[in-house]
Amino acid sequence: MRSHYCGQLNKSLAGQTVELCGWVNRRRDLGGLIFIDMRDREGIVQVVVDPDMAQAHEVASQLRNEFCIKLTGEVRVRPDSQVNKDMTTGEVEVICKDLEIINRADVLPLDFNQTNTEEQRLKYRYLDLRRPEMSDRIKLRAKASSYVRRFLDDNGFLDIETPVLTKATPEGARDYLVPSRVQKGSFYALPQSPQLFKQLLMMSGFDRYYQIVKCFRDEDLRADRQPEFTQIDIETSFMSADQVRAKTEEMVHGMWKDLLNVDLGQFPTMPFSEAIRRFGSDKPDLRNPLELVDVADILKDVEFKVFAGPANDEKGRVAVIRVPGGAKLTRKQIDGYAEFVGIYGAKGLAWMKVNDRAAGMEGIQSPVAKFLNEEVINGILERTGAESGDIILFGADKANVVAEAMGALRLKVGIDLEITDLSAWKPLWVVDFPMFEEDGEGNLHAMHHPFTSPLGITAQQLKENPAAANSNAYDMVINGYEVGGGSVRIHNAEMQAAVFDILGIDAQEQQLKFGFLLEALKYGTPPHAGLAFGLDRLVMLLCGTENIRDVIAFPKTTTASCLLTDAPSLANPAALEELAIAVKVAKKDSE
Amino acid sequence: MRSHYCGQLNKSLAGQTVELCGWVNRRRDLGGLIFIDMRDREGIVQVVVDPDMAQAHEVASQLRNEFCIKLTGEVRVRPDSQVNKDMTTGEVEVICKDLEIINRADVLPLDFNQTNTEEQRLKYRYLDLRRPEMSDRIKLRAKASSYVRRFLDDNGFLDIETPVLTKATPEGARDYLVPSRVQKGSFYALPQSPQLFKQLLMMSGFDRYYQIVKCFRDEDLRADRQPEFTQIDIETSFMSADQVRAKTEEMVHGMWKDLLNVDLGQFPTMPFSEAIRRFGSDKPDLRNPLELVDVADILKDVEFKVFAGPANDEKGRVAVIRVPGGAKLTRKQIDGYAEFVGIYGAKGLAWMKVNDRAAGMEGIQSPVAKFLNEEVINGILERTGAESGDIILFGADKANVVAEAMGALRLKVGIDLEITDLSAWKPLWVVDFPMFEEDGEGNLHAMHHPFTSPLGITAQQLKENPAAANSNAYDMVINGYEVGGGSVRIHNAEMQAAVFDILGIDAQEQQLKFGFLLEALKYGTPPHAGLAFGLDRLVMLLCGTENIRDVIAFPKTTTASCLLTDAPSLANPAALEELAIAVKVAKKDSE
Questions:
Q1: Which domains, and CATH codes, for chain A?
Q2: What is the pTM of this model?
Q3: Which residues touch B134 (CB under 8 Å, ≥6 apart)?
């Protein structure tokens, strides 16, 4: 029905007759001349309806915002004085010859010129998606998917679909369950990832697999989580961790180049331990130059127990952050930061302003200075390279509390004081993760997942000292977001059984849950490794938004509801009867 | 770890050293020389291990089938006498220099040289997929998906994901339900198709949408159905039915050309009524030249009630199929066909052999000839163009029974007598479907779905005579398989409400189930139309298999079980508690 998209019109089409279909973005009536800003998915163009075109003018006078219309007109170059530099089509306009209303619109429940509540926007999602800001994100997402597929296709990866109705797997989060009608009392689980299936595909010899696939986690949702999310899932055989990283880095590098014309450069590699030490996080935002600096050795002999305690505790840590220009922070701001680190379990926030580095102790302003002698203070100043006008912020506690609190504080201060370069792109690989985490009660949990291979040791060595083992896992981090993670997998049954043993999964449970995997490992399993990217997160970064709902066409709220369709909803009792399940009376408390 | 895939080796690499990774397909020990057929995803190559290479020979002597190995060797052109024309790599072999066992294999539970039960194959799917016949199908599927995506990307279609956790919709089949933990007592439904979401995307102005997406139907399964299946889902705005058909025909045409190097030609278009009349089916297999020929007018005055009854009944039909060369059918074969049509409700199968067309009534052999006079018989012979050696098979019953029974018989006879050209490709479009079907109790049901636009009439006209209305729907049929179907959708609220009324969906139910759609139709909805292809079926056709499980990596059985992972399975009682649902004691009968 159309010859061009509105957004495609330009000077080269001057004099041509075009047919357009789209929506009335705005209508203005200027002394007889009617101007229509007409919108379709590619953009907006100005249409002029002259009173001389009586029929078209009569129709145009009925138009209201968001009417769906079709028109025929001639492209005309605007006089220089009327060129609109804010519109991509601003050099031209369309002189309307014929105009037809395809469908009328009531007054919209959303006002595109104002800020609407997110609840309203989600309820009328189909209208919110008409806003160019929103539709551009969905279009960029489509381009990102398309880029990824072409890259992987061209690199010999096979797109293979894995089941959605599957068996519960132990990714750590809760599964969504689906009752079976045929086998009453039994349930499918929606996959948290296609992990085991992709490993089985390697055992089948497919060599290079990928899938862009929905995964599901029934978790309590945070701002950047959705119950269903999309993974770029990749697995390869006979490739080392280095090779997998190089290939997937090439892919992400190409995405940024292709979609944003940004060169991400080569991604540095950083061991997990270094990331925690320098940035207090396993997904450091390297746009922020602030670092944690360890000073336990300097403070271990002071009498001030707040510092000396953790400094002398094997599980403790004392670290400072030097904030250039931070001496200008007010007492109120510092109190705010003290409260902030409290969220992460820190009991307070000691600080030291360096008002005048040349003035010695006179130039130091700090509530804790009186507990420290000059040598100690000089030691800290020297190690951090502090200069006049800086502030030094102290973290002293259990090592994990210091890392989390100071890591978060680093990010916050970096943004607040405009130290973080928000226009930069800082990707990196984090590697050499510990194989297991201790849960505080002496139990070990897999840090990645139980199919991850340890790095450079035998099953016997792993059993002897599991806590010391590193895994051959890797995360890709961009600007502080973990956008992807993966590992070399275990490809022999003995190692797999050793890991299950360490995790306290007994033989019976191993058989019940992973019998097919242990069986499969017996038949010439190739070495294999892979990785999964969070597509939603990648697209968030590409779009420059921090709201995951902005990059999903029909997202759910933090209570996992769809405000548009009103899902979830009550089920038909007959359907439940057929499934042989009953709803138990809901408890008052949300439990 | 490899320099080449086994299947890629050819004469151009002669003299080169290659590194290969893969599996032992077969090992033969011929007087010291060990021959290994080594396999990877691209094919098989012969490796020769000479006793002179002592280390490699020692390793090679340990090899058993399906060991995973890595080797270095030199490509050598085979002497002419030893070229193996059955292998794509049969002109070369690899002289092994170095050989390493990566992983050993127990004796396989499947024997690749024998036929295994499908149950065994599904349980050890990862091994069954190692068979080139199987892996080729999965690879062809990946190529088909990739082709479709490139075509649609290049034609301006946007890949947009729609939710999996959604609200029950009325596609006709049972929904899979997913209990919500957050909103206890409420359920999501897995989508039977993204129908309403794709329509909403058109209302948002995305103009051209596609998605290759899993859909779900909790139906009793037949051989060619799976509980989860994959749809190529397409929707467009401002395009006519003709344009949608032309564009998607171009896509399928390109798939066959690209993947099979087959030119499907231009697809003919056939009205539903013609398809039923000539072939007794709305998905006619045009590889089969047999047709149903109506003869009610000839038979309406005969005394034989079996014919005259339906011939004079408005809802009856009398049709024959002339089978060239069918006079050779034995009595037993004909009895078999009579039994076969009984499955479709036919009460018998009258037949007439034309042993000698020149001999008049003498040349006719038929149990029913005695009930018919010469004029009637000649009328039938003339209309069908029967010749000596043919048989004429009769269907006389309610019109739908005749269509189903004779339509099925046509297919069966076509195969049995090798009349159907199994090497041919016969695509077509079936169009002009009735808008509604009557269920025998006076209720009308949507033949396509309730969002389908009627063809060329107003809402008022539709209400006045719904049974007479045709819809603007279309199916793509290839070789008797419905591979895709779609329609122009309703884009105004009045028409949509009229259809809901006719279907007996009252205002309250409309609001509850489709309130958001009716609301959305108020805001300048564009005309839109779309289509969905069954990817599994398309790939079945491309692969030349009739078993849908052959084209799915991890399929389910007809009881919707995964024999590999043993899904569905019992749920953790704590998980059910959290979901506030209880399993009711399973009844003895499967109900």
A1: 6-103 (2.40.50.140), 123-270+423-433+471-491+526-591 (3.30.930.10), 288-416 (3.30.1360.30)
A2: 0.94
A3: B128, B550
